[in-house]
Specification:
Number of domains: 1
Radius of gyration: 18 Å
Oligomer: single chain
Helix content: 25-40%
Shape: globular
Number of helices: 7
Largest sheet: 6 strands, mixed
CATH class: Alpha Beta
Strand content: 15-25%
Distance between the termini: 48 Å
Number of strands: 9
Structural class: alpha/beta
Order of helices and strands: EHEEHEEHHEHEEEHH
Amino acid sequence: MLKSMDDLIVSGLRIDWNMLTDSYVSRIPSLRSIDELEFHKNVTFLVGENGSGKSTLLEGIAVACGFNAEGGTRNYRFSTYDDTSDLAKAMTIYRQYAIGPSSFFLRAESYFTLATQAREYDHGGGLARLHEMSHGEGFLEILLSHTGKGLYLMDEPESALSTQRQLTLLEHMYRMANDGSQFIVATHSPILLGLPDAEILSFDENGVHPCDYEDTDSYQITRVFINHRESVLRHLLEDET
């Protein structure tokens, strides 16, 4: 089980919706329900359907904490597109400790750009050679190369990882969390969500609320498919034959 930690780097956040009256963010039901949000564990997973707002919130947290919107450490300063939400400007982060230099924001959708920029920001380091690795190898190299106590924000890290590599990441996160690091992760992976004693926040049209592992869609749908594969496929494909 994860150790009980009273010294989270980020303990919560507040959103001033008066600053976002004309923003599309205010029309996302799950996000609009948030005035304040507290984190209670060193590992927090954000779950929900595509478009539910979990990645938008994660990006807002990252930018409000001083990270580059496209990923990297807080030293990365590059921009290849201007498509970030304005949520961060209305967000106050409740921070109890400094965000250490090893801290990192990783989002799957901008991995290629991040790998390119790492040549400049990681002179001579392992990350400067990301383009020489496969997508999955490079992705895991980023995740495993950061071992210092810090804040780690990850958006769908499972997208580049095999099932076995997801287990490797789970073990890495568990060890680092017990050493004092904090993770906030948006994911659909039933494997990562299985990390013992993690906090799971579910995003839906009714707001943001705590959720048990067995109640997540990722777990339930995967379980049904594995246990009843033939009947599920028959139901899905019967109109295609």
